[in-house]
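A brief tutorial aside. Many learners find it easier to grasp structure tokens once they have seen a single protein encoded end to end. The record that follows does exactly this for methylmalonate-semialdehyde dehydrogenase (CoA acylating). Read the sequence first, then the structure, and try to relate runs of similar tokens to stretches of the chain.
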Amino acid sequence: MKNVTHWIAGAPVEGTGRTSEIFNPATGEVGGRVHLASAAEVDAAVASALAAYPAWRDSSLVKRSQVLFRFRELMYANRDELARLISAEHGKVHSDALGEVARGLEVVEFACGIPHLLKGGFSEGVSTRVDSYSIRQPLGVVAGITPFNFPAMVPMWMFPIAIACGNAFVLKPSEKDPSASLLMASLWKEAGLPDGVFNVVQGDKAAVDRLLEHPDVRAVSFVGSTPIARYVYETGTSHGKRVQALGGAKNHMLVLPDADLDLVADAAVSAGFGSAGERCMAISVVLAVDPVGDELVDKIVSRVSALTVGPGDDPASEMGPLVTEVHRDKVVSYLDLGVSEGAKLVVDGRRTQVRGGTAAEETPGFWLGPTVLDHVPAGSRVHREEIFGPVLAIVRVSSYEEGLELINGGEFGNGTAVFTNDGGAARRFQNEVEVGMIGINVPIPVPMAFYSFGGWKASLFGDTHVHGTEGVHFYTRGKVVTSRWLDPSHGGVNLGFPTNR
Ligand code: NAD
């Protein structure tokens, strides 16, 4: 049985109180226990970060970037082990877990360029013999609170940039799949990061609440569901902290009649069922503009029927189980709900054959196969609510305008995609749609590390998106210096407001 500890001041630290079970979603068995931090344990992690901060802040940009380069190499060398840990606790297939490690490493690579990213501006002679320049400085101790669905990538959206900027970091990973955090912590140490600059507190609401109110935590990055994101944003900001809180999603794919339907069907199935739909950028609604609906649904169904569902460590599996029993049951409840709302269940994932098992609903573990609901009524709960599982809803619409209105009328604004061969239509869509990340013939438009990731509306609370230059801004504060070195001709006393002369 695994015993997943905290990581404080460069070493594993046993918890002293509550613990929670970690499951293997493919079997339903308990594989270990994770400690759940008390307020005192959070305080110990923050104290360790605070003690390490001054020296790290004062270490040179080149030194910091060298540590990041070494961390990048160690993470790359250990990517298989990291992916194995993720797959065992999350359930996603090994290749998908490797993919999330690769996307996280891109942020580390971006952060290796911190000497360039932190360059300020300099203006010589803003007034007579007066110069002005801008600098950005770290905040101090900052925290990251992350969801279960990307136990390596989402923390890596945050900590490489925060640490490169000179901050000390406390990570509170999801208690459902916490092991990746400890491997990453040990690799930071091996890379030469001073003890205390990166800490991990395992835990649940109690740990989150303490981080949100702790006076020495200056900023909090959060990624998770919308109700918790809203709570974290409101609580953190009311305690004077800078907060970016990314929430849930309901991503639509708008299919125009001129689109290549084979490309669309491939994209819809990949984006709908990859990682069992447990991605905030998954496509969960296809808006089929008349007359493409019937032909497109046939193409989607034939591809779904060919998918292989099985344990994440089986190389033949393309899709694994859901993360917990509770979550699986919640996702399954949407199947009957959809039918009661008037949708047609064209592929029922409860009946999907699981490799090494039988039908999903009879196989031990948290299984549900890929499910397709057609003719989902616009505005129904299946259409509007985040399901976060392998359920693809097809909504038939009569025009581009009707599709756009459905997307813009939704609660969320994380990702969306348009499929068309008409450049003018695509350009109009990117201009008119109220969503933060847009794909044009690309189903999962996750921005590269040098752009920033974030949605609109209930998908993000706060001003800045994560990683990229917005990440650098989030983890630093600006200063502008106006300097004059005296020369013999200085002008004497002047009580006027300083203006440019
Ligand atoms: P979650 O909101 O349940 O948990 C996220 C974090 O909050 C975890 O660390 C958890 O321990 C903590 N938490 C849970 N309940 C809490 C409470 N009552 N008070 C304080 N903290 C609490 O989310 P999840 O189920 O782990 O992840 C799935 C969700 O995350 C989905 O809604 C998905 O869309 C979203 N997500 C969004 C993005 C994005 O970029 N917008 C990325 C990944 C996941």
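Self-check: The chain has two domains: 2-247+459-482, 251-440. If you spotted this yourself, you are ready for the next section.
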